[in-house]
Amino acid sequence: MADDYLTLADLAELLGVKTETISFYRAHSKPGRRYADHPFPTEDRLFGRSPVWAASRRDEIKAWGAGRPGQGAGGGRPARAPKDED
Questions:
Q1: How far apart are CA 26 and CA 47, in angstroms?
Q2: Given a cut of 70, is residue 2 above it in pLDDT?
Q3: 8, 53 contact by CB (below 8 A)
Q4: Fewest C-beta atoms under 10 Å: which of 15, 46, 51, 61?
Q5: What are the phi and psi torsion angles at 21 (to 5°)?
Q6: pTM (2 d.p.)
Q7: Which residues are bridge partners to 46 per DSSP?
């Protein structure tokens, strides 16, 4: 299996993030969520409850990672206006 499929840990290493981050990307790729316009590639299989991706999709996943929004994308709370000093 190790040569044919990539696990969450493999994808995390490939993209330089934590496994929890890959899980976050997957969860937020659903319609109406943060990454709905740039969804994470869907897994090819499940081994039990663990998703895996075909190793042949490594370049596709790297391309997804290169196009993902950076930190601060998507809004959030506006920055506080600076206070006037007397």
A1: 17
A2: no
A3: no
A4: 46
A5: -70, -40
A6: 0.74
A7: 51
